[in-house]
């Protein structure tokens, strides 16, 4: 197996484009009115560079200058309704992604195609519009429908199921300033056809421990049109094992995300920008940029 793939395996648990948590936009915790259909179109682009192992950058010549660029077009369709008297939303999400590798990773080649499909349902056990206070619970299932090849180090699909549960809470702090906090945990099924990504000449079984993410930050309503937000993320867990052998590559990442949302007569527009502040294992995200448009019917 290629020495470069073996070096990546020692510290990386999955392709950076696939490691993102459920990143909430400002007011995503606010329960929608029932009997509405929403279409969300998104562009999501990331850039990852320096590879870290146990908190230190990897300086071997083969990995001294890595570059991973991912660009995705995402379509999410959702429907709001009432479930046992509680606000609820169910959704389906599909994406087409392009993954390009450069620098010291250029020999591994890029990939384009469908990403894994996701299904989700959200319920709000508590939603008080008068006090702007909301508590929501989300269940998120990702299916192994994306493009995957066992002979590639990086693929757009993961060839495994993922289940993610998220709890989120939002309430006013003072005036037009709200606070939001969420916690989500992601569980992974096994990938029994892992070869190149597991630095193996034949298929082996990849398992991964759960990943937990904390997201919190302020949301400020500037005026009737614009709302701004800032989020801090702490991600931990996710170490992998191959055929039962631990890889000792636990994720410990801190990142920030800045958001600006515009509510207009033709729909909601949003812009988000962020990056990693600290990376313990894996490729550090040097940029994430998201452009989104949502329309209700």
Short description:
By secondary structure, the chain is mostly beta strands. The protein is built from 1 helix and 18 strands.
What does this molecule look like?
- This protein has one domain: Autotransporter beta-domain (Lipocalin, Beta Barrel), CATH 2.40.128.130.
- Strands 1-3-4-6-7-8-9-12-13-16-17-18 form a twelve-stranded antiparallel beta barrel.
- A hairpin with a 2-residue loop joins strand 3 and strand 4.
- The chain has one helix spanning 3-9; strands at residues 37-53, 56-57, 66-83, 86-103, 111-114, 117-128, 133-143, 162-174, 177-188, 191-194, 204-208, 211-221, 226-237, 240-242, 245-246, 251-264, 267-279, 282-296.
- 2% of the residues lie in helices and 63% in strands.
- By secondary structure, it is mainly β.
- The radius of gyration is 20 Å and the shape is globular.
Write the layout of secondary structure elements.
Layout lengths: L2 H7 L27 E17 L2 E2 L8 E18 L2 E18 L7 E4 L2 E12 L4 E11 L18 E13 L2 E12 L2 E4 L9 E5 L2 E11 L4 E12 L2 E3 L2 E2 L4 E14 L2 E13 L2 E15 L1
Antiparallel strand pairs: 1-2, 1-3, 1-18, 3-4, 4-5, 4-6, 6-7, 7-8, 8-9, 9-12, 10-11, 11-14, 12-13, 13-16, 14-15, 16-17, 17-18
Q: Which structural class do you get from the secondary structure elements?
A: mainly beta
Tell me, rounded to a whole number, the average pLDDT: 92
CATH architecture: Beta Barrel
Percentage of residues in helical conformation = under 10%
Largest sheet at a glance?
12 strands, antiparallel, barrel
CATH class: Mainly Beta
| CATH-defined superfamily | Autotransporter beta-domain
Task: Give the end-to-end Cα distance, rounded to a whole number of Å.
Answer: 52 Å
Strand content: over 45%
Can you tell me the overall shape? globular
Strand order of the largest sheet: 1-3-4-6-7-8-9-12-13-16-17-18
Q: Helix count?
A: 1
- Tell me the number of strands: 18
Return the string of H and E elements: HEEEEEEEEEEEEEEEEEE
């Amino acid at each position: 197996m290629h020495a470069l793939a073996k070096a990546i395996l020692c510290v990386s648990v999955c392709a950076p484009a696939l490691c993102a948590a459920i990143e909430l936009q400002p007011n995503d915790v606010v329960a929608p009115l029932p009997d509405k259909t929403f279409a969300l179109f998104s562009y999501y682009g990331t850039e990852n560079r320096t590879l870290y192992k146990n908190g230190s950058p990897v300086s071997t010549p083969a990995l001294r200058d890595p570059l991973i660029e991912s660009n995705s077009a995402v379509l999410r369709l959702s429907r709001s309704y009432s479930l046992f008297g509680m606000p609820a939303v169910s959704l389906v999400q599909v994406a087409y992604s392009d993954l390009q590798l450069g620098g010291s990773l250029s020999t591994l080649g890029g990939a384009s195609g469908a990403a894994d499909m996701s299904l989700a349902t959200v319920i709000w056990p508590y939603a008080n519009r008068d006090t702007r206070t909301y508590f929501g619970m989300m269940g998120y299932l990702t299916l192994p429908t994306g493009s995957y090849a066992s002979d590639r180090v990086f693929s757009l699909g993961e060839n495994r199921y993922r289940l993610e549960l998220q709890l989120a809470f939002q309430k006013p702090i003072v005036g037009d300033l709200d606070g939001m906090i969420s916690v989500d945990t992601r569980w992974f099924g096994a990938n029994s056809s892992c070869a190149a990504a597991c630095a193996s000449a034949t298929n082996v079984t990849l398992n991964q421990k759960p990943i937990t993410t904390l997201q919190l930050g302020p949301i400020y309503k500037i005026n009737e049109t614009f709302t701004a937000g800032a989020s801090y993320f702490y991600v931990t867990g996710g170490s992998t094992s191959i055929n039962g052998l631990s890889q000792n590559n636990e994720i410990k990442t801190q990142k920030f995300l800045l958001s600006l949302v515009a509510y207009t007569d033709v729909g909601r527009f949003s812009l988000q920008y962020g990056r990693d502040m600290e990376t313990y294992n894996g490729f550090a995200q040097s940029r994430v940029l998201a452009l989104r448009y949502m329309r209700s019917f």
